[in-house]
Amino acid sequence: MARVILAFCLIVSLVVCVECFGQSIEETRSVSSTQSASHAIPPQERQALVTLYQSTDGGHWKNHDGWLGPVGTECTWHGVECIPDSDGFQTVVGIELDENNLVGSMPTNISQLAHLRWLNISRNQLKGSLPDAVGELTQLEDFMVFGNQLSGGIPDPLIHRWLSGSLWIHAEASLLTDVSEIDFESNPSMLLCGRRRIVLRSDGDVMFSTVRCRNATPNDRRTFCEVKQGHINSGGFATLSWLLRKNGFYSLQAEYSRNISEGTFESTRVSRAGKAYEVVNYADGGPFELWTIERAIEGVALSTEWAKTRTEGKCSRWRDEKAPQHPQSGNSN
Predict the structure, then answer these.
(1) Do the domain assignments include residue 305?
(2) Number of domains the chain contains
(3) Which terminus of the chain has a lower count of CB atoms within 10 Å, N or C?
């Protein structure tokens, strides 16, 4: 009888252990499922990342560790940064894929990364135009796209935020403005050695030429040209270009003057979207907006660090055949 009772107890213990083991497995699965869900990003964000990978030849990136892994692993993919949202679920806030051999174009569903704060895709081989959807990334604070082969321009909503100071953009000037060259010349009518010329280009090159007096003797009226060459960043040129637009340069008259015998001739010439514009200002006869533009151009030149300085016999000047026909009032600004 004792043996029967002992066997019965062993069977009961075995059943209880099996039930406990099963319950433990279910609890483990539940915890694992909860953890996976908490680490997963929203489905639309995952789809945007997958499309980015596919549209930029992700299989040939320099580093694509983790990409296209199971749901819940997205925040471990190379270059993807996440933080928890207010409900504790992960959301993508940053993408760092600079110098990673991205080839192709940006997908239109990039806007599904609604919480993205920084996007670094610089120094890759992206082509074509940036989709308007990039402009829908309203949380973006840093946008680095320099060093690709992009055409067109950065969407207007991002440009406006960049000009307001709420967004930092690192890109070629050609993506920030349609101005390719700004040429400013100043010539005081009563000075032998006062003429100067400033040429700024969208590639960052700056040339500053000044007529200097030799002064070899008290009566020496010979002059020479001092030419300085330097470089400014693309953002500085683009900002200056937008200052021209904001101050209505493209709607100004072709010429302003005052009826006095001694004054300074100033000419501002701009190449924009394949067209040339020129405004001549004698003796500060122009409006305040033109004065602001002229002083801003001089300010950029004065803040430039010069890499080379040389002398020439004569300073080059704006050629008459190069002077444009200035559009009449009513032209868009």
Answers:
(1) yes
(2) 2
(3) N
Q: Which of 123, 145, 171 is the last residue of a domain?
A: 171
236: exposed, middle or buried (Cβ count in 10 Å: 0-12, 13-18, 19+): middle
* Same domain? 183 vs 316: yes
Mean pLDDT of 132-152: 96
Q: How far is CA 120 from the centre of its chain?
A: 10
User: Is the pLDDT assigned to residue 24 strictly greater than 80?
Assistant: no
Q: Which residues of 50-80 are buried (b: 16+ CB within 10 A; e: fewer)?
A: bbbbebbebeebeebeebeeeebbbbebebb
Place of tokens 């979207």: 273
The answer to whether position 310 is within a domain reads yes
**217 and 267 share one domain:** yes
**Residue 327 pLDDT > 70, yes or no?**
no
Q: What is the DSSP letter of 109?
A: G
Last residue of some domain: 171, 206, 240?
Answer: 171
CATH code, domain with 239: 3.30.1560
In this structure, how many other beta carbons lie within 10 angstroms of the beta carbon of residue 322?
12
| Residue 55: inside a domain | yes
Q: What does residue 113 show for φ and ψ, rounded to 5 degrees? A: -85, 70
For residue range 258-286, list pLDDT tens digits in order: 998 888 999 999 999 999 999 999 999 99
User: For 113-140, how does the pLDDT look when each residue is reduced to its tens digit (9 = 90+)?
Assistant: 999 999 999 999 999 999 999 999 999 9
pTM > 0.70: yes or no: yes
Q: Do 186 and 287 fall into the same domain?
A: yes
Give the residue carrying structure tokens 């637009």.
Answer: 245
Instruction: List the domain range (segments joined by +) for residue 214.
Output: 179-322
Report, as an integer, the average pLDDT of 193-197: 89
